[in-house]
Amino acid sequence: xxxxxxxxxxxxxLVFRLLLGVLAVVVPLSHLAWLSGNITAYLTxxxxxxxxxxxxxxxxxxxxxETGETSLLIGTRIVPVLLLLILGAAAGILWNRHKNRxxxxxxxxxxxxxxxxxxxxxxxxxxxxxxxxxxxxxxxHIDARDTGILLGNLxxxxxxxxxxxxxxxxxxxxxxxxxTTSLAIPSILGAPGPVLLTSNKAAGDAFTTTYDARxxxxxxxxxxxQQIAHAARAMWWNPLASATTLDGxxxxxxxxxxxxxxxxxxxxxxSKAGSNILSQLLLAAALDQRPITDIxxxxxxxADRTPLDILRDHGFAAVAAQLKGTVEGPxxxxxxxxxxxxxxxxxxxxxxxxxxxxxxxxxxxxxPAQFVTSTDTLYLLSKDGGGGASALIAACADSxxxxxxxxxxxxxxxxxxxxxxxxxxxxxxxxxxxxPDLYSHLGSRGIIPITILQSYRQGQKVWxxxxxxxxxxxxxxxxxxxxxxxxxxxxKLSRLIGDHDVETTSTSHSESGKSTSVSMRQERILPxxxxxxxxxGTALCFATGMRAAMLDLRPWYQEPGADKLxxxxxxASQAITTRAxxxxxxxxxxxxxxx
Length: 595
Description:
- The chain is α/β, with parallel strands linked by helices.
- The protein has helices at about 10-45, 55-60, 60-65, 70-110, 120-130, 180-190, 205-215, 245-260, 270-285, 295-300, 305-315, 315-325, 330-345, 350-355, 370, 390-410, 425-430, 435-440, 455-475, 485-495, 530, 560-585; strands spanning about 150-155, 160-165, 170, 195-200, 220-225, 375-380, 420-425, 450-455, 475-480, 500-510, 515-525, 540-545, 550.
C-alpha cells in the first residue's frame, strides 16, 4: 500500500517555520550589521549612517562610501555574525539554567509556600512564644532565639523556620548529612534555658563546639563514664535518688534492660525475670541509702538476706516475698535469672564507671531538680553499645526530663525558660524505653526534645514497630535529611507529601492534519527516588497540620560568630587529645625508664 501523501497543511507549516527561522536570524543580524558598521565608521573617521538595517546588511558600501572595503567586511559581516553566535549561545545557556531551575522549583512550589507554613515563621512563632512564656509577655523586643528552635530557611527564601516551645521533634538524618552541624549544634547554641545533650562523640562534635558558649550561659556538667572526652570526674550522680518507689526502681531497671537487649527480646522470660530481680535489689539499695554498686554483691550471693530485710523493714512485704520466692526457687531457674541480671548490670563492676554514680568526696553531686531551674548544660557521653554505661546515660537523661516535668507542674504547667534535651544518637546511647509515651506530653510542659536517629529502622530496633510509630505520630515536627536509603520509608514520605496535577500534551498526526490534546494526570510531588537523592544541606520538614516543606539547613559554621566557635572547638579538641596522650603515655618503671 503506497504511503499517504503529505497534506498541504503540513507543507504550509514547514514553510512557516522556515520563515520564522530566517527572520530570527536576519532581523538581529541586520541590526547588528548597522550598529557595528556605524562603530567601524566612527573608528575610521567616516560619517554616521541613518537607521537602515536592511541596507547595512545587503549594501553597506552605499551607507558608508568613505569606509574601506576590508573595514566594512569586518564591521558589517564578520563581527555581527560572531556577536549573533555569542548571543545565541548565551541565550541557550540561560534558557537551560532557567529550565532546570523551573523543574526543581516546580516540586517545591507544589510543597509548602510561606503562607502554608506561617505558624513556624517569625511573626507567628513570636506571638506564640509570648503566650507560652510569661517572662516574655510584656517584652518590647524578643530575640529570635527566645521564640523557638531554628530548623532552617524555607528553601529559596530568607524565611526562617522555627519549631516552637511546645513542639517535640524527631530528626532522621544519615551520617554526615548535617544532623550535628545544622541541627544539634545550632539548637544548643540558641537554647534560652537548660540543655541536655547525649552523644557518642566528643572531639570536633557538638560537645567541643558548644562547650565554651554554654559555659557562658551557666554551669557545664559532663558525665563521661567511658572517657570519650577523657573528662575529669567533676560530678557524680545518684541514680537511686528516684528509685525509692517501686515504679522508680522499675524504671531504673528498665534502662539496664533496654541497654542490653533489643525491643523484640525484652518480653521473654529471662529478660523479664532478670529485670524484676534487678528492680527489687535497686529498690532495697535506694531505701537503705546504699550506693548502687551494693547490688552487685547481692547478685553474686543470692542467699544474702540483706535486701529481704531492708524491703520488709520499709513496708515492701510483697516485693520481699517475690524476691524470696525467686531465691528459694529451683536452683537452675534462680541461677539463670541472677546471671541475666548480672549481665545487665555488669558495667557497675567497672570502678571507673561506677565512680560516676557513687558518692565522691570533694566532688559536687549533680541534682536534676536544681538543674531544670537553671541555664546549665549537661553533656552525657557514652560509646555505642555501651551496655550498662549507656543504661546510666539513659537513666540520667530520663531523671532530668522527669524532674523537669515535676518542676513544670509546680510552676503552673510549663518551664520558663524551656528545657532542650537533644538526644543525639538516641538509638545507640540513650535507649529510654518509654520515650514514645513521653513524647505525648513533654511539649506541653516546656520540655522540647529533639531525638536524632540515623534511620527509621534504627528506631524500630530500639522501640519496636509500635513504639517507633507512636513516637513518629506524637512528634509535632519531623525533620528528614539526606541519605534515606530505606525504600519503604521513602515511599511513605512521598505519600505524605502528596500528589499534584501535571498537564500532559499529546500530538497526533492523521490524513486530515495534526491535532493536539491536553489532559491532566496526578503525579507524586516528590517521588521516593527524589527523597533518596535529597542533596546535603536540605531537609524535609513535616509539621502538624501543615504541608510538607523543603528547608535549606543552616550549619553553624556559616553563621555569625562561627570564627569564635571554631577557635573554641579546636581548643577543646586539642585539650581532649592532650588528656588522652597523658593518660596513655608509657609510665616509667622502677628504674626510671619508660615501660
